[in-house]
Amino acid sequence: MQGNNHIDIQHPEAWNLLISVAEGRLDYILYAPSVPGSLVVGEVDWPDGTLQGLEDAVYAAPVLLGDYKSVRLLVDSRHYVLFPSTVSDDDCDALLRMAFPGDDGDTVVSALPLCGLKLAMILPPGMRSFLGRTFNYPQVSHRLAPLCEYVKGQAGAQGLMFIHLLDGSMDLVAFRDGMLQSACSFACTGDQDAAYHALAAWRASGMDQLGDELQFIGSGEMCSATVARLREFVKQVRPARYPAAALQLGRNAMQAPLDLILLALCE
Prior knowledge:
alpha/beta, five-stranded mixed sheet, Nucleotidyltransferase, domain 5, 13 strands
């Protein structure tokens, strides 16, 4: 998925840049909404995970520094809380600080309109300032935000859990009776670990083993083994349909991180 980080984008004011900031790397996509098939997919190494390392990584990739139409970033913060949409941003910040005392980073609150919620997170110290002075009016959200909105749009009357299995990690979102019950990311050492977290969230969300559904996206040995374990306990386990609209962005859409593709589809 390594892209050309020195690619010359003509007329960047017509393009959108989406970046996912996670430990060790930055993933990005670029696309021009008016040009079907324009999708560019790439990644930038961020090996040390420090703020200075993040700055060095961004400035070493000129493709990220264009004057784009819009810039949106997803950040993988471990310090986050979901609130009803009626809670003010100031109250979200105050309650978040109570949940994670001692974290002196900046708070970012994002609206999840389909879910009727807000997702508040704390960024590492200095990150918000760096993003604000480097990118053109960037919108920053937690990396689970687009997955929550997407699964809400897929959930019907029955309960639905959606898991995205990657090498060494799993994202999980669950809805029941139209309400978000769980939104988590887990580090997973293997299929047994992943299945344990999924089943624990299934029970905590009040899901029914016979009537509710578990959908998954993933590939590789860990995904196959995890799904096999889950099918021992949950009747309706099936692969999720990849969003067909994503292919209009470009034929390489399936090579891009799912969170960025879903973010693009939400725009």
